[in-house]
Amino acid sequence: MPTVIAVTSEKGGVGKSTLAVHLTAAFAGRGLNAALIDEDGRVGSSRRWAQRAEQVGQPLPFPVYEPDDVKPRKLADLDVLVIDTEGRPKRRDQRALAGRADLILVPSGPSPLELEATLDLVDYLHEHGSGRGACRVVLTRVPAVGQGGEAAREDLRDGGVTVCNTLIRQYAAYTRAAEQGGLVRDLPDPRAQAAWGDVLALSRELQ
Ligand SMILES: Nc1ncnc2c1ncn2[C@@H]1O[C@H](COP(=O)(O)OP(=O)(O)O)[C@@H](O)[C@H]1O
Ligand SMILES: [Mg+2]
């Protein structure tokens, strides 16, 4: 069975779908058999992303499933399965997710308010998480200039939170990629390549 990584957060708009799509692409690009389940389905979700990619004739390099069309047979051969969740899921759903996933990946912006919301969720998952799901924060939309990301990472670690070493920096290329249904990997811009380097590094840290 695949390693199951669920991407979830306390708040919407933190970059879950952007990260889920790119992370799955990074796993696939490294030769792993990877797939994504989109449990959101609304505007801006991974499924819509994949549809746009197909429309422009450049399909994503991995399948994106809706929860209803996931058959165990499809999943058995996978190395890694990423789950993209809706913004602001109910606590109950998050607890259920923790039971299904090997890893709960919680993207968070580095600002104090975002970190506060993230800590709330991490505390909740630690208290109520059903054992199987380990929980790790990944800092995202980190300003490419300055040390704010590093500082936030060390603060979280001092507080006993498990944080990914890799910082996903903030680049406009992600928004451009989303609009086109593409990946930053395929944008001819040095900053897009720097963004892709972050995602690759994160993928290596996780699997
Ligand atoms: N690392 C990043 N750098 C710049 N913009 C980002 C980054 N990650 C996400 N975004 C942008 O933030 C917005 C919300 O991202 P999205 O992935 O849809 O969040 P969520 O799935 O958590 O609601 C989108 O406009 C997206 O392009
Ligand atoms: Mg989303």
Automatic annotation (TrEMBL):
Coiled coil: none annotated. Signal peptide: none annotated. Residues 5-43 form the CobQ/CobB/MinD/ParA nucleotide binding domain. InterPro entries: CobQ/CobB/MinD/ParA_Nub-bd_dom (IPR002586), DNA_Partitioning_ATPase (IPR050678), P-loop_NTPase (IPR027417). It holds the Pfam family CbiA. This is Chromosome partitioning protein ParA. It comes from Deinococcus ficus.
